[in-house]
Amino acid sequence: MAAVFPARPIPASPPDPLRAQALDDLRFMDDPAWEPRVEELGLTIAERAVPESPLRAQLAVVDIQAPFALGLRALTADLLPLLRRWSPLFYKGRVLQGPDAFNDTLHLIFHSAGAGVHPRELVLQRNMTLLPDGAALFSYRSVESPQAPTHPRIVRARAMRAAHELSLTPWGCRLRALWHLDPAGALPSFVVNRAAAQLSEQVHRRLKKLLFEMHNETRRFGEKRPRQVDYRG
What we know:
Blueprint: H1 17-30, E1 35-40, E2 43-50, E3 53-64, H2 68-75, H3 79-86, E4 90-100, E5 103-110, E6 120-130, E7 136-142, E8 155-156, E9 158-169, E10 172-182, H4 189-221
Parallel strand pairs: 6-8
Antiparallel strand pairs: 1-2, 2-3, 3-10, 4-5, 5-6, 6-7, 7-9, 9-10
C-alpha cells in the first residue's frame, strides 16, 4: 500500500478556504481506510466507505514513465482534448470564466451510461495548489454557474470530493486520482458503486497507456516547434 499512502508531511491548513479544501482532499487520500481492489504494475486502485454516504470513494494511483511536465500538461492545457481518449463516457467540455489559469470552472458533459439512463454533467470549480515537495494538487468541487444553466434532458451530477495529485518520482511521475461522485437521479447506490469501480479501472488503465504513448511519441519524433502551453484548458 506504499503506492497509495506516501510518507510525507502535509502543510497545515491555511485560512484560504480553497487551499484548505485541497489539503483536506490530500489528507483524505492519505487515510489508511482505503481497501485495495486492483494492484498491478504501475496501477493501484482502492475504494473506501465514506461516513454518512451510501456511495463509496475511488482512489487510483498511476505510475507513469513520462516527465512531470507531460503529466501537468495533461491535467491543464490538454485536459479537455485528452478526456475523450481516456474517459469512454466523456462527450464535451469547456472552461468557464475564472480568476486565473489555475482557479477556474469546468463544465463537463458525459454520455449516457446505458439504456434508460440520462446523460450527466458536472460543473466543477478547479483549484491548483503547489505543495512544498513540488507536487501539484488539483482540487475540484461542484458549483453552480450562470454560464452553465441546467438542461432538462441532462442530469447534473455532484462531486462531493475530487482531486488529482501529480508528484515527481525517480522514473517519471505519479498521479493519484480521487473521486467521490453522486450521479444524482434515481440510480440505486449499489448500482452506482459497482459502475464507479468498473469505470475507475477502465479510465485509469486507458490514462496510463495514453500518457506512456504520448511520451514515446515525443521522444521519437519530438515537437516541431516549442509549444506555447495555455493553462486555461
